[in-house]
Amino acid sequence: MPDHRLALTDATIVAPDGQHEASTILIRNGRIEAVGDDVETGDDVQQVSLDGAFVIPGLINLHSHLTFFRGADDVSDAEIAFRATQQAREALLAGITTIRDIGGMHHIDVALRDAIRDGHVAGPSLLVCGKIICMTGGHTYPRAREADGADDVR
Predict the structure, then answer these.
(1) CA pair distance 67, 49, nearest whole angstrom
(2) If you write DSSP's letter for every residue of 103-144 in order, what string do you get?
(3) Nearest CA to 56 among 11, 100, 93, 22?
(4) 123-134: per-residue pLDDT in tens?
């Protein structure tokens, strides 16, 4: 894969320490490499002026279930995977760069995390746990691994 560098110039960056007017964001192969007023760019770097538009850091969704939706129990794993992939892509386009998915179906969340990480599909970084564990009859028991006591959970 050839090296691709992009400089977003004249950006108003919203950061925890305030706004930095007319800053540059240097991106190499899809990852932010440098941010600031003194970022060096060369002739081989594609330049795009944001004309003062606001840029914020990636957002994090800390409570998500990408594989849960109304009717998910009545469709194939492939349909669940397609819909989870679509939800992940839509989240990324909305500015969410990390999702903590706190319970998935049939380890589809794990496969989706790997597919995103390996560049096969577009989506945010995923922190996943696989199938939910609950006590017998507990919260989400139809989709969970029911376990009672420490030994059963292990």
Answers:
(1) 38
(2) --STTHHHHHHHHHHTTSS---EEEE--S-EE-TT-TTGGGS
(3) 11
(4) 999 999 999 999
